[in-house]
């Protein structure tokens, strides 16, 4: 059935459209005229303070039957002791996962999952965070649990242990991504490596954190008068006020936080810094120096400057470095503003290695250009329009507005900061941008950091001046194994015990062994499951190894040929990173087969280090040192090696730990006696079992087996 529109009504509608459009007909889109932006009206939260000092912000939003709660706590990793960096992160994680005095973390997981609700906690540099999301119908009982997590977390030891593994995994992998390396290290160059704004967590600092530290941290900082609480959603403000009183009102006030000053390097450290990353084909480049604070009256001109320099597709960096010169897919640049301390000025890009120097000069030219060539009126208008037109999308929900209002209150900024934002941006002039560019950006004080493979650059970085290498080596965890005292007696006893091993496992035949080929299965434990792999390994003395791992997902081959190491996977060839090659070299030097082959090498030292039982047999412990690599061997009375230990890493997470290999099922293979079963533990947990099904002594080797394929 068709609906007929009355002619009079149709004519009136067309007349209205013509009135809007007919008078504005143009021949070019540039002549289009737009009405002024409507006034941006920001909803106001209901704000009150409980008697214990907890400040509450309420924002009603009846669009959906949902309620969100957020809390900001006056704490932060900036206040950690230097020897326990990572304490705040651990506390933030275990506060939620470790449960409360009433429920375990796992019970809370089940409770929330049954209600499609979530509660999360964390700690950042200068604030602690907690959040709740749930359906309106479940709010009362979920809010009660939220209050318990804030007020009385249990910090279960087993969950702290799990959180430490996660932190250590992050440490082990922190040098995997070039962009992450550049971002982290430019902050350390600008703020200083010892500043809380740029410190790294390390294995030693994570190990130093105890449950008592978490309890003490919570007691010191988690007081109601140090907390701002925000609630947004489908509720009535008066009723929600009563609920907040019921959950938090009887929480006694504590000592208010007097935030200590956070030290940072105030004098610039200009120069060219370089980090070698041999396994990449692109260079990551970043310039850096101190920025400003948000309270700076020049904050608004700086925002316009940032938009002109690197804010989007129309910015100078994007237009000139990316579009015109084609030196990067993405490029960035901005003068950052921090709430308490200065932010960072950062400008950079990632480019192919062969255009590294060209890209550096291109970015440097735009940095100096923003100082020497103020924005044109067209650039200024484009930048301001872009900021103002996108501004609303940052606050297009009541939850976003509430979060921003809480942030300003938390950091002591004016409550009308949002209302004044538009007016302050609109009144910025080209002269303002020119002034702040000259005042806050100093090309002669910039630190330039380059991360990449120097051999592939389009010229030496030394063309730019003195180059300072930056060491990003991850410090190993402290070695907790007891040290053997070297003495004539311990050396002689060690020599005799080692001679027993050599005689039992092959004697002179060990020296005549030029290569060993093994094949079998490998069970890799991943949580509660075990992944089955096939492996084939060729060891060719003195320094070549080829190892092939096969799984249903494909095959990977690692080759070390005495000059280099590389990985073959899916038809691709990748060089082994320097760290991986170094670790593989250490694995060779502590491999029992290598120690046996070089049993009379002058650099091989054996010290008797006491006796300990292994699987019921009383063993002689030997502290072994071979070409700078150390391990320990447990020698059974019959001369077989029952166990080996050393400071190594988990095969999956790469987290360092005490590796223990239990060797068993010794069988004769030609003139040699070799273990066919190896069980590996890391820090006491079983991670891998190796079974050898085939062993060949002095096999015929394919001369191509150790050659790097042509690319």
In short:
This protein is of the alpha+beta class.
- Unreliable stretches covering 5 or more consecutive residues: 1-23
What CATH architecture of the largest domain do you see? Answer: Clam
Q: Identify the CATH class of the largest domain.
A: Mainly Beta
Amino- and carboxy-terminal Cα gap: 69 Å
How many discrete domains?
3
Largest sheet, spatial ordering of strands = 20-19-18-17-16-15-27-26-25-24-23-22-21
| Topology-level CATH name of the largest domain | outer membrane lipoprotein receptor (LolB), chain A
Number of helices: 20
Structural notes for this entry:
With 711 residues, this protein is of the alpha+beta class. The protein folds into three domains: 46-177 and 195-248, Metalloenzyme, LuxS/M16 peptidase-like (Cytochrome Bc1 Complex, Chain A, domain 1, 2-Layer Sandwich); 271-398 and 413-469, Cytochrome Bc1 Complex, Chain A, domain 1 (2-Layer Sandwich), CATH 3.30.830; 488-697, Lipoprotein localisation LolA/LolB/LppX (outer membrane lipoprotein receptor (LolB), chain A, Clam). The protein is 33% helix and 29% strand. It has a 13-stranded antiparallel sheet. A hairpin with a 2-residue loop joins strand 19 and strand 20 (572-575). Helix 10 (299-310) packs across helix 13 (377-391) and helix 10 crosses helix 16 (430-440). The model is unreliable at 1-23 (pLDDT under 50).
């Amino acid at each position: 059935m068709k609906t007929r529109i009355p002619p009079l009504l149709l004519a009136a509608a067309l007349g209205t459209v013509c009135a809007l459009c007919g008078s504005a007909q143009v021949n070019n889109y540039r002549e289009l005229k737009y009405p002024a932006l409507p006034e941006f009206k920001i909803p106001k939260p209901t704000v009150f303070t409980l008697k214990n000092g907890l400040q509450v912000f309420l924002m009603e939003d009846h669009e959906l039957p949902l309620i969100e709660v957020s809390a900001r706590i006056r704490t932060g990793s900036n206040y950690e002791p230097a020897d326990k960096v990572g304490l705040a992160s651990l506390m933030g994680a275990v506060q939620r996962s470790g449960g409360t005095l009433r429920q375990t973390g796992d019970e809370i997981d089940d409770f929330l999952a049954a209600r499609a609700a979530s509660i999360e906690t964390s700690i950042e540099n200068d604030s602690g965070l907690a959040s709740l999301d749930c359906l309106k119908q479940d709010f009362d009982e979920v809010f009660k649990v939220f209050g318990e997590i804030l007020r009385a977390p249990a910090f279960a030891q087993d969950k702290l242990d799990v959180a430490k593994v996660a932190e250590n995994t992050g440490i082990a992998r922190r040098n995997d991504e070039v962009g992450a390396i550049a971002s982290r290290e430019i902050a350390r160059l600008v703020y200083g490596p010892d500043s809380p704004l740029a410190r790294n967590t390390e294995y030693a600092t994570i190990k130093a954190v105890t449950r008592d530290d978490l309890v003490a941290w919570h007691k010191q900082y988690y007081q109601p008068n140090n907390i701002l609480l925000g609630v947004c959603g489908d509720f009535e403000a008066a009723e929600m006020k009563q609920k907040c009183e019921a959950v938090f009102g009887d929480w006694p006030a504590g000592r208010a936080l007097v935030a200590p000053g956070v030290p940072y390097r105030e004098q610039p450290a200009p120069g060219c810094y370089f980090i070698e990353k041999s396994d990449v084909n692109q260079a990551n480049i970043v310039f850096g120096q101190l920025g400003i604070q948000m309270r700076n009256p020049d904050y608004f001109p700086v925002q316009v400057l940032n938009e002109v320099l690197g804010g989007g597709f129309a910015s100078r960096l994007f237009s000139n470095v990316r579009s015109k010169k084609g030196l990067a897919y993405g490029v960035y640049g901005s003068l950052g503003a921090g709430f308490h301390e200065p932010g960072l000025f950062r400008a950079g890009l990632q480019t192919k290695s062969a255009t590294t120097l060209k890209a550096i000069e291109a970015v440097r030219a735009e940095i100096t250009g923003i100082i020497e060539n103020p924005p044109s009126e067209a650039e200024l208008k484009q930048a301001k329009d872009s900021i103002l037109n996108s501004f609303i999308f940052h606050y297009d929900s009541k939850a976003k507005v509430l979060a921003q209002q809480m942030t300003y209150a938390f950091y002591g900024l004016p409550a009308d900061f949002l209302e004044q934002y538009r007016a302050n941006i609109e009144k910025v002039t080209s002269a303002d941008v020119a002034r702040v560019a000259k005042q806050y950006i100093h090309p002669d004080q910039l630190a330039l950091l380059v991360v990449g493979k120097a051999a592939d650059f389009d010229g030496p970085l030394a063309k730019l001046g003195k180059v300072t290498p930056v060491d990003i080596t991850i410090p190993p965890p402290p070695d907790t194994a007891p040290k053997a005292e070297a003495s004539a007696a311990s050396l002689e006893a060690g020599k005799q015990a080692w001679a027993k091993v050599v005689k039992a496992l092959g004697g002179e035949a060990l020296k005549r062994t030029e290569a060993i080929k093994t094949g079998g299965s490998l069970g890799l434990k991943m949580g509660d499951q075990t992944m089955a792999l096939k492996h084939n390994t060729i060891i060719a003395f003195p320094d070549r190894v080829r190892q092939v791992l096969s799984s249903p997902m494909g095959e990977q081959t690692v080759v070390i040929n005495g000059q280099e190491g590389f990985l073959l996977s899916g038809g691709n060839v990748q060089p082994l990173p320097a760290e991986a090659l170094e670790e593989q070299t250490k694995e060779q030097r502590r491999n029992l087969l290598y120690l046996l082959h070089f049993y009379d090498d002058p650099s091989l030292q054996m010290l008797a280090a006491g006796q300990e039982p292994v699987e019921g047999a009383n063993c002689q412990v030997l502290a072994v040192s071979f070409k700078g690599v150390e391990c320990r061997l447990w020698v059974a009375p019959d001369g077989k090696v029952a166990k080996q230990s050393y400071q190594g890493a988990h095969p999956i997470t790469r987290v360092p730990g005490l590796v223990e290999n239990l060797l068993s099922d010794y069988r004769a293979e030609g003139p040699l006696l070799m273990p066919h079963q190896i069980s590996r533990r890391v820090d006491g947990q079983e991670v891998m079992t190796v079974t050898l099904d085939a062993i060949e002594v002095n096999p015929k080797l394919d001369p191509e087996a150790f050659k790097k394929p042509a690319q």
